Amino acid sequence: MGAISSRHYHAHVYFEATQLDLARRLHRELARLFPVQLGRIFAVPIGPHPMPMFQVIFHENEFAAVVQWLLHNRQGLDILVHGLSGDDLRDHSELTLWLGRSHNLDLSVLDRAG
C-alpha cells in the first residue's frame, strides 16, 4: 500500500462472521465513492484487532467526508478511526475515534516509536 504519512488516517471496519456480506458492500461503496486505499477483508482477527475487519486508508483532506459517510452508513458495524503518527501504540490507544461501540485491542502486539 505504499508509505503513509501522518497526514493520513486509518479506519478499521469491524464485523461479525454473519455480517461478511455487509462488510463487502461497504468495502465496495467506499472504493466507488472516495479516493481511499482499501485493505483486504480479513475474515478472522489479525494484529491488535479483536474481530474480523478491513482497513481504509485516507488522506486528511478526505477525513470529514469519509468519517461522516461511515457514521451514517455503518449499518451497526463498529469502526475504529485513528491517526498515523508513526507510533503504532499511540495511534491505536490515544489518537482514536470510535463509531459505534469501542472494542478492547491487543495493544501488546504494537510497537511504540522511538
Characterization of the model:
The protein contains three helices and five strands, in the order βαββαβαβ. The mean pLDDT is 92. The protein has 114 residues and is an alpha+beta fold. It has a single domain, classed as DOPA-like domains (Alpha-Beta Plaits), CATH 3.30.70. The chain has a five-stranded antiparallel sheet.
Describe how the helices and strands are arranged.
Layout: E1 8-14, H1 20-33, E2 37-38, E3 53-59, H2 63-73, E4 79-83, H3 88-93, E5 96-99
Antiparallel strand pairs: 1-3, 1-4, 2-3, 4-5
CATH fold label = Alpha-Beta Plaits
CATH homologous superfamily classification: DOPA-like domains
Number of domains: 1
Instruction: Count the beta strands.
Output: 5
Please give the largest β-sheet: 5 strands, antiparallel
CATH architectural grouping:
2-Layer Sandwich
- Share of helix, binned: 25-40%
Beta-strand percentage range: 15-25%
Spatial order of the strands forming the largest sheet: 2-3-1-4-5
Helix and strand run: EHEEHEHE
CATH class: Alpha Beta
Mean pLDDT: 92
> Low-confidence segments, ≥5 residues, pLDDT <50?
none
The total of helices stands at 3
Structural class: alpha+beta
Radius of gyration: 13 Å
Terminal Cα span: 23 Å
The rough form would be described as globular
